Amino acid sequence: MGRQVAKEIGATYYETSVVTMWGVHHVFESAIRTALITRRQTRFWSSHLKGVQRPQLQPPYLPEKADPPNVSVPSSSYKENLKGLLDSGMCADVEFLVDGQTIKAHRAILCAAAPTFAELFSLKEVKISSSFGPPEKLVFQDASVFGNPGSLPEVLWLWIPITASGSVKHTTLPFKLSGNIPLEACTEELEEAARNLQLVSLVDYVANIVNNTEYMNTEVHSRMVREMTSCAKKLVNSQMFSDIVFQIEGRIVMAHKAFLVAQCEMMEAMFMTGHFKESGVQVVEFKDTSCDAFLKVLEYLYTGQCPSLCVDDIIDVMALANFFCLTRLVALCEQLIIKELQVAMATNEMAVAEDIIGYLLEAQIHNATQLEAWCIHFIATHYNAICRQCPKHIKNLDSLTLKSIEKKRWPPPWYILEADWFEKATRELDNEKAAEKLRKSSKHIRHKRKCSCL
C-alpha cells in the first residue's frame, strides 16, 4: 500500500524502524540525493553535481535468525529423594534397634550405600568392634527376626550393640544417602562410630571437618557417589532383597520398591496408596513396552543418572519416562537426541530432515516439549528446502503444528515476497540504465558522423 502511494505521487518509498534504527540511513541518504539532483537542475553548469545518482532501492529488512532453543535439564533430586524416603519410613524392610530406639531403613538402598550392610544382610558373619563396649559378633540369624529362620521377612529387626549419642544414631544413615551432615554433628564420637561400622566415606568426611581440611570432602563426596551408583546399578534386575516383580514381553524383571517409590511419584501412588491394583500384587505386567527400555528406566531410578542409550532404544525410554512422569529423564533423552542430530548435521544439515520430522511426531506423542520446539525451529528455518525434499511428510503434519512452523519461519514469508520484488525492481532499473546508456551512445555516434560529413 505504501509503495503504491509513493509511486502515484512520484516519491521514493522507504521503511524505517524506531526500535532497531534500521533504514534511517537509507532515508537520509536518499533525501540528500534528491536535494542534490534538484539543485543540479538549476545549476547544470556545476560539474560536482553531475555524478550524483538517483535515490537507490531499499533492500528488504531481514530479521535476525533466532537461535535454536536449548534443552534445560532439571537438577537431580536423587539424594534428596532417598533422604525423604528414609525420613518417612515408607516401605521400610529393616529396623535398627540402637540403644532402645528404632530407626527404619531399606535393605536394598543400604546395600548400595555401604558394603558393610551388604555383608550384614547377606547371611554372612560380620564383626563390628566398638570402643564403647566389648567387641561383638553380629550374625544375621541371631538377630531378632520375625519369620522362619533363614528366610527374608518383610521387616527385619536388627540390634546393634553400640551406644552413642542421639546425634550419632540419626546422622550415619542420612549421610550415606545424602552425602551431607550438619557441621555441628561432625565430632570425634561420630568418627569413632563410623569407624566401628566400617563406613569409610563417613570416617574420611568427619576427619576432614575435625582437621579443618573441609576442601577434601569434595573428593570424598564424589567417591561416595561413584561407589553408590556402581553398587545400585548392580541391583537392577537382581533377586537380592527384591520385593516386586515385573513381567514384560514374557521376561521377568526383579526390582526393589524402595528405589522405585523414592524416585518416582507415580510408582509411589501405584504401590503405596492402595488405589491401584498393583499395590496388592507381587507381579506387575506391563504391555506395549520394551523390556530393554524398562531396564534402562530402572537403571535411572536406581542411580539417578542417564543410562547409556543407543538411538534405537531412546524413543522407547523417553516414552516410558513420560508414562512414569519422569520429567528429568525425558529431558535427558531430548538432550541426547538433539546431540545425535547435531553431530549428523555437521556434514550435511538436510541429511537428517526426514529424521527430524519423525522425532517431531514422537515428541508430540510423549510430551517432549523441548525436543518438539527444537524440531519446529529446524523445520521453520529450513522450510523451503524441507518442502522440496520431504513434501509428503510436511503435508502429514497437523494444522496446529503447521501454523506454529509458519509463524516461526525464517526467512519469513513477507521477506521472501519483498526480496522477489526487490530483485525484480533491481532488474528493471538495470535495464533502464542499460537502455539509457545505449541511447546516449547512439546519439553520440550520430553526432560524430554529422561532424565527419562536414
UniProtKB/TrEMBL annotation:
State the residue spans of region: Disordered: 54-73
InterPro entries, sorted: BTB/POZ_dom (IPR000210), SKP1/BTB/POZ_sf (IPR011333)
The record, for CDD domains, names: BACK_RHOBTB, BTB2_POZ_RhoBTB
Q: Which residues cross the membrane?
A: none
Start and end of every BTB domain? 92-156, 242-305
Its recorded name reads Rho- BTB domain-containing protein 1
Gene name per UniProt:
RHOBTB1_1
